[in-house]
Amino acid sequence: MLGTGGMGSGMARSLVRAGLPVRLWNRDPAKARALGGPGAVVCGSPAEAAAGADVVLTVLFDAGAVEEVVRRAAPAPGTLWLQSSTVGLEDVDRLAGVARELGLVLVDCPVQGTRKPAEEGQLVLLASGPDDARPRLAPVFEALGRRTLWLGAAGAGTRLKLVCNAWVLALVAGTAQSVALARGLGLDPEDFFRVIDGGHLDVPFARVKGAAMIAGDHPVGFSLTGALKDSGLILAALRSAGVSDVVTGAVREALTAAAGRVPDPAAVDMAAVVEGLAPGPG
């Protein structure tokens, strides 16, 4: 397990709970040490964690970090590399090249879900890679997720992840706009949620994020920094596909404005995008 941040820590706990022996490494050693215990050995380097592993799982911030850490880990040829970080279209092609160079079996498998589903083993796994990897990964996938979609050759998982995150970011930004507009018009934003309550427009995720927006409390499920990073990957994917980027472009603008208004964008949830829609000073 290379990367035990917000998502990685929850995934590690799910693996240990399922009885799978795990070796952990994180760039910040304290985050790995917090997970140490029976079935979870904390390692001082990526190479130590990967030595002799059947599966090397990467859950890191971006493709640059993934490539650097996997090269440092240098897993044995033939090792299954389960790559679950969210990366871009060009990135996944580059990482496939790294896998070929190192002799690894790449399964491109970003996940859909935030910290709570990661902790509970309830993620949706967007797997893509060789068919013969499926039985070898079955115990890992059973521990991590409520459902696995096998999508074809490596790279398909990343493409679907970008599709899903485009919708998630638009949903959160749209919710934030309604909350901000209600306030701007002198209304109680709770009334918006009363309108959609129980109807076909009611989306549980929007209600959770909306409650955080109204309370002004943004504990991290998916950080504002991560959302901003992913919006850039989605913009590149839209342009590559020849699809208009007007929606994600507007979302990214709001995320950027919010990042400029909070002390630490990495320490708040993406629901803090509402701060980028509020009236500015003066």
Task: For this entry, give a set of tags.
three-stranded parallel sheet, 282 residues, 8 strands, single chain, mainly alpha, three-stranded mixed sheet
Brief characterization of the structure:
The chain has 282 residues and is mainly alpha-helical.
Total strand segments? 8
What characteristic shape results from the CA principal axes? Answer: globular
Radius of gyration: 20 Å
Major sheet description: 3 strands, parallel
Reading the helices and strands in chain order gives: HEHEHEHEHEEHEHEHHHHH
User: Low-confidence stretches at least 5 residues in length (pLDDT < 50)?
Assistant: none
- Number of helix segments? 12
Helix proportion range: 40-55%
Label the structural class. Answer: mainly alpha
> What topology, given as strand order, has the largest sheet?
3-4-5
Distance between the termini: 48 Å
Output mean pLDDT: 96
User: Which band does the percent of strand residues land in?
Assistant: 5-15%
Descriptive account of the structure:
Helices cover 51% and strands 11% of the residues. With 282 residues, the chain is mainly alpha-helical. Strand 3, helix 4 and strand 4 (80-83) form a beta-alpha-beta unit. Helix 8 (156-184) packs across helix 11, helix 8 (156-184) packs across helix 12 and helix 11 runs antiparallel to helix 12 (246-259). The protein is globular, with a radius of gyration of 20 Å. The model has no long low-confidence stretch (mean pLDDT 96).
